[in-house]
Structure formats: structure tokens, C-alpha cells
Amino acid sequence: MRLDPEHPLPETPRGKKRRALTLALLVAFLLGWSGLLFGAGFAYRDFIMPSLRSLTGATAFSEIVASLGRVPERWLRARFDEVEVPKLSLDIKFKQLHKIHQKREEALAQGLLVTEDDDFVPAEIRHGERSVPVEVRLKGDLPDHLLGDKWSFRVKTRDGKALLGMRRFSLQAPRTRGFQAEPLFLESLRWLGVLAPRYFFVEFEVNGRDIGLMALEEHFDKVLLESQGRRESVILKFDESIFWQNQLHAGHHLPFDDYRKAPIEAFGMGAIRRSPELMRDLAAARGLLRGFAEGKLSASEVFDEALLGRYLAACEVWAAQHPCRWHNLRFYMNPIDRELEPIGFDGNLHLSWLSPALLTAQEPITREFLRDEAVRGAFLEGIRELAEGLNDGELLPRLQRLQGDDLAILHREFPARSALDLGVVAARASALSGLDPTALFDSSLPSHAERRYPSTVLANLILGEHGPELQLASALPYPVRVEEVRLQREGTAQATGFSELLAGFPIDLPATREGAAPAWRSVALPVTAEIEALRVSGEARVEGQRHTHTFTARPSHPAATAPALPRVTPAELLARHAFLRASSDPGFLEILPGSWPIEAPLWLPAGMGLRIGPGTQLRFAPEGLLVVRGPTEFSGSEAQPILLEPLLAEEPWPGVLVLDAGAESLWSHVQVRQTRGFELGDWRLTGAVTFYQSDISMSHCHFRENSGEDALNIVRSRFLLEEITVVDAASDGFDGDFTRGEIRGGRFARIGGDGIDVSASNLSVSGTRLEEIRDKAISVGEGSHLVATGLRIDTVGSAIVSKDDSEAAIRDSTIQNVEHAAFMVYVKKPEFGPARLKVEDVAVKSAGELAIAQWGSDLVIDGVAQPGQDFDADAVYESGYMKK
Fold first, then answer.
1. Per-residue pLDDT tens for 538-594?
2. Which is the most buried residue in 189, 488, 652, 880, by most CB within 10 A?
3. How many CB atoms lie within 10 A of CB 684?
4. What's the rounded Cα separation, in Å, for the pair 41 and 48?
5. In terms of DSSP bridges, do strands 339-343 and 199-206 run parallel, antiparallel, or are they unpaired?
6. How far apart are CA 36 and CA 498, in angstroms?
7. Residue 163 carries which DSSP code?
8. Cα 614 to the chain's mean position, in Å?
9. Is the pLDDT of residue 448 over 50?
């Protein structure tokens, strides 16, 4: 039978099934292959590519192949390496974790994390056998901090505890800061002497679930400052909340992308409000930063120009644009020289690439910094320093070692991560060495009649010359009319109904053009209350709009109109003071022989030294003091000592400050009498005689009758004190912070606090007598090292105290008449570790107790370890047993 091609036989059921199965398999294969490619693309984009990127933002294909080829080797080496990585375990209750989940969903939905104070939830973090109570919240402005399982957290310890030596820190995925790039940038800053937070990698888990490696970054508080040789003070930032609110409202930042319109805030306001000293520092610091922002003060009148220039240099060499943005700047107020120092962080090197562009010329605030000649000079010098350090200098091997250590950890989880080519950084530094940056252009944004703004009026509450004032300015590049302002006392409106409309409104505020400082208009408030107790709010209308906007004034401080320290010239000083003359040695002024009254503060220009000869007397009025920003050579003799004393009997004077001398000071046979502690207005130092970043050698000098906190204070300096005498001091005799030096011989007697007290210092004491000391004869803390020999200690509260990760040794000495304990070791500040003290051949003739060794700290007397015991340092200090 012949088949008709036009009438084929019908397909059998078996054939239909075969065709359907083939088609289904083909579709499944195509879907699977597409899904594999799609997933691989995302995996490459999100996980592999970030690990492969170099500092130039691009990676050659050959480098990608080579890096991927080394993945097994790197992973195995990292897994079998014995590098210890801290492991942190976050334990958090379901209710609190649910709140964090909700906040994350909100942030992902709106594309921005907006944090508030009540976002913090209680939890605990375990490290080894120790569990520390903490508060945590999400952190990071953009969603990249909330991807996958590696969410970024801000952590605050509770109850005064510390974790890994810190009380505030952040945890974030290593990719959010460019893996090992961030610690390399921060180490470059520290090499230049610029403050930067600690940053390292840890293993992390949440409620037992392994999250993997996270980057731990120290946050801004006094622990950061003290760990890098700075005294506690305030840390400022420009408030960026309106900047981000406008992003939510309008999809962009303008017109609030401007540091001149941003309020100035401080970290840790709770601690600041509890301290009169910190409140004074805040007022001075905020005033200086406002003075700069409003164009009333130049950069070098507000900031430490050397450190600011070096900070900008590091940002430029590493092409770190992110830390140059105004809302990422952080400033520490140095309470000694009254200048602001930058704190570097968040280099974000995975988002900005090395290129020929001059990044510091692209930001308005950095352009303003660099308009200052002193800052510009320090900037160029900093670039040259980095070029030298990265080209056959000490910085390059330092960074190479750090990168190797970090990669040994990162390769456990990110084996595709390659070493960054530091040669391109060195080449950029060399290429930039001769630059002279210039100002760039400004931009503006047109308005819209119905546009909503997160802020229309900049409003500050300040304490003016005649009482509280309200400062108002337009936040926009358009005129704004303030329709009304309402005033009420905090906490009284509901109880008494006290709330009033201020007279004199409406008023018109001129436009604040882009890049210009606001034109403030001041309104006196008809009250005498503290500004912190006032609430002032109002309504305003933007020109051309029908709807009104509300605003609330913030407590602030007046913008400074003069630098914190007076600026004088040698010619002005010579014309003003007959007892001064120019030295034959350039860079020095001399005080003529004789007895001279100093009735007002005597300031010397920066870099100018001072010489005083034998027999000279300077008699200071109650407001008289001496500030020298250069080396001092005070050369008295045994027969003709130099006298620094009060002009009027029984009226103490503030004292002497030598800072940033640049060369060693030499004092011999100088007698300082009846000081009360350095103070000038709101500027107060703990020392009556203070040397800050100024090396000093003293011989046969006497300090008597100091009624302030420290008779002699040396900070961040090297020193030699030979045969000095400190007697009749109300508090500490000698206080050293972040120092290295020797005390040879001499006598400390009738001291109301500690005889010798050092923090974060290396000290040698030999042949010294310490007598009639209310508290501790010698106290060492915060990682100090002490070697003491041949001491004679008599009639003291305690003899030798080592605390907070300090190490002390005393031998061949005599101790008698100790009220409490002769030797003590303990932890006072939990961010530091246990202390150690070794005692050899020391005769203790009379003491309330021989030794107190807190559990964990080590005290060894003549080879015998002393038993540990419970010791509550806080309770002891609060009881008055010892002074803080």
C-alpha cells in the first residue's frame, strides 16, 4: 500500500508524549541555563567583581583569570593559617530583632536608612567567655549596608563596659569599605599624625547563626582620642539629617548639599552636658566652626593647618573623595591649643578611583580649606611626604605588611580578593607633588512653586551679649518670609499655658545663594532663661509658594569672629612691652634683666621662642599669664634663680603654657610660685605649667603652692626632670599624658592628690623622695610603663599603683607610713586590660595593707605572685579612698 503524502497517518499517543517531553526538556534546559547565567551574573556583580576591583576601578581580564586561578590556594592557606581573628556573638531577643527587621524593610523600601535615637535595642555581645551588655541599631545611609545577611550595625556598650577596648563601634560587611582598602587609607592618615579610628576584621554571628567576616570600625568618643594621644574633648560634625530628608522628598540633595546651612552637632551630648569643661569646649568649638562656615574666620584661624593639610593630602593621594564631603567630616576640639583637628574615616575607596582629577578641588568645603595659604602649604607638603613614604620610604612596607595581614583573614571568605597595587598610589603621589589647586565653579537649582522642602529656615538659639537671641536665615536660594514665631519654656506649656507669639513678625529673609554663607538676622528674645530650656518654633513661606513650612530653632553658639588664640607679631609685642627685646638669634625674644609686672596675658607669636636670664623676676597679676608657641630657654642660677610669682601677695596667677615649640625647651633654677591653674575665659587647662608637644629639660626647678589641678603637666612631649621640687600642691604634683621621660632625684611633698601621675606614658624615676602625699605617690595608667629605683616614699595614701594595662617595676626603695595599700594593681577603665607590677628589694616598714591585686592583674613581690581579690575601683574612687 502506498501512503498518500497529502493525507499522513494520524500521530500515535506515544509520539505525542515523546514530542511533549522533548519540548519540556528543551524549555527546562533553556530556563535553567538562563537562570544559571542570570544568577552567575548577579554573583559576579555582587560578590566576585567587588573582590577583583583594583584602585583604578577597572581590572584587566588577565588579572581576573589569574586571581580566580589562585582562589583554591588562597582559601586553603587562609583556612590553615593560625592567624587569630576575634569572634563576636550577638545575642538579641526576638522582639528586638523584629524591630531591626522592620527598620531594614523600611530602609530598603525608601532606598535610605533614616535613624532615630529610639532605634537602639538592648542586646548582648559575647567575646570568648565574656558577655557585654550593648545597644544596637542598623547603620549606613544607603541600602548597600543592608544587603544579604551582612547588615551594618552601630553598637554602644552599656554599664560602662568595654569590648575589645572600645565602647562604641560599628560592624559592617567588608565590601562596604573596599575590603582591605579602608585600613590602608586609615593607616596612611595615622602615619601623617591625623586621627583615625581603629579598623579590623572579626568573625560575627547573630543568635548562633554564622554571618562570616565583618569589618569593625571604632566610633567617635573619648576612647578613640585617648588611644591616639589626645585629651578628652568634643568631636563635631555637620548635621546631615536635612540633607538626607531632602533626598526622600525630592530625589536629590540640593539645595541642602551645603555645609554652610547645616547645624553643627557634637557626638555624645549626654556626657558633654554632664561636664562643665566639655560644655565650655563645645561652645568654643562650635563657635570656631561656625566662624569658618560663615566666612568670618579663615581655615588656619580655626583648624590645625598642618593636620588639616595632611588630611586633605591623604584624601587626594588615595583619591578618597568621600571623606572630603562636608557631611563626612569630623573634627576634634583640642582643648590645649584650641584648634580643630580632622578625624579621618570612611575612605569608600571602592567607589572613587585613582584618576588624573584633583578631587579636593571638587568639594566647596575643601576648596575653602585650600584657599588658606597655610593649609595649602601643608597640603602640598603632605603630598610630598606621602610620595617619599610610598617611594622607598617607611610607609610602603608598613602598608604592605598591613595588607598581607588583612588578606590572610579576608581570604577565608573572599579568596578572589587580590592585593591592591600600591604602586599606583605611589605614582599618583609623585605626580601630584607639584600641584597648586584652584577654585572651581558653583551650581544652583531652579525653584518650583509647589515644591516641598525639609527645611526653609535656618534657626539658631544663642546666648548673645544681652541675653537669648534667635538667629534666622533662609536655607534656600530664594527669599523666605517668616510669618510667625512662637516661644515657650520647655515643659511648661501644658502645665501653665505659657506660650506666646513674638512681636515683630512677619519678617523677610534674603535668599542664600548656593555656595554663600547665610545672612543671619537676629531677634532678641524677651526672656532670661537658659536657651536649653526654651522651645522656639515658627512658620515660614517661600517666595512664590502658597503653603507654609514649619521650623524649630536649635540651641547653638555664636559664630567666632576671632581665632581661639590671639595672633600677634614680634613688632607689636616689642612696641607694647618695654621689657622685651629682639635676640641676636633669629626666632627668639628676650626679657631684659630686672623685675617686671605682667598685668595681662603675654602671648608670643607662633614659632617665636623666649629667653630669660639669671635673676629675672616676672610678677603676674591675677589675670596675667604667659603663652609661648616656641622653645623657652629660662637660664637661672643657684645664686640668681628666675622667679615667676604673683604680683600681689596671696593672689594666685594662672601659669605658663608652652605649646608646639618645635625645639627643646631648657629650664634651670626656675621658681614658680602660687599658681592656680591655667585659665583664660572658657579656656582652662589642668596644668599650671603646661608643655604640650614641646620637649623640655628641667634642672633644679621649684614649683610651690599650686592651688589648681596639676602643678606641672607635660603632654605629648619628651622630658628630663632633674632635681625638681614640687611642694604644697592642692592636687597632683606632676601629671604626664602620652609622654616619654625621666625624673632624676628631686622631691615631691605635701601634695593633695598624686605625687606623680602618668597616662599612656613611658617613665623612669630614680632617687626621688615622695613625702606627705594624700593619694598615690606614683600612679601609672592607660598602658603606661614605669621603671622606678632608689625611691624614698613616706606618709602617703598608697605608694605605687599600676592600672589599666600598665606595667610597672620598682626596686631598691624604701616605703613607710602608708595609710592604705603600698602596692595596687587593678582595672579602672574597662576599655583597658589588666595591669602588672613587679617589686624587688623594697622595704615596706608600715602600711595598712601590703598589696591589693584585683583578679586578672599581676602583682609580684620578690618573686612571689600575690593572690587576686575582688576590687571595685569605681566604689573606691567614689568613697574618697583615692582621687580620680
1. 999 988 777 888 999 999 999 888 888 888 889 999 999 999 999 989 899 999 999
2. 189
3. 17
4. 10
5. unpaired
6. 69
7. B
8. 43
9. no
